[in-house]
């Protein structure tokens, strides 16, 4: 898989209200994964929600579903 920089996909932070459709989701994951995400996102100064949003966007690019 090709490496894609996070900055190519999205800027940290939520879009302004009215610019996009955001819906709540539930994710079931291991506590070790949550701990690793929390350590990483704190260094990036973004919320857990924004971290997962960025991760999903990167994964979709890697799968070839969307473009950067």
Secondary structure topology:
Layout: H1 6-9, H2 31-44, H3 48-63
Oligomer status: single chain
Q: How many domains in all? A: 1
Radius of gyration, CA atoms, in whole angstroms: 13 Å
Summed over residues and divided by their number, the pLDDT gives a mean of 81
Note poorly predicted spans. Answer: none
Question: Percent of residues in helical segments?
Answer: 40-55%
How does this structure look, described?
Helices cover 50% and strands 0% of the residues. It is mostly helical and 68 residues long. The protein has one domain. The radius of gyration is 13 Å and the shape is globular. The two termini are 14 Å apart.
Task: Please give a quick description of this structure.
This protein has 68 residues and is an all-alpha fold. It has one domain.
Keyword list:
single chain, 68 residues, mainly alpha, 3 helices
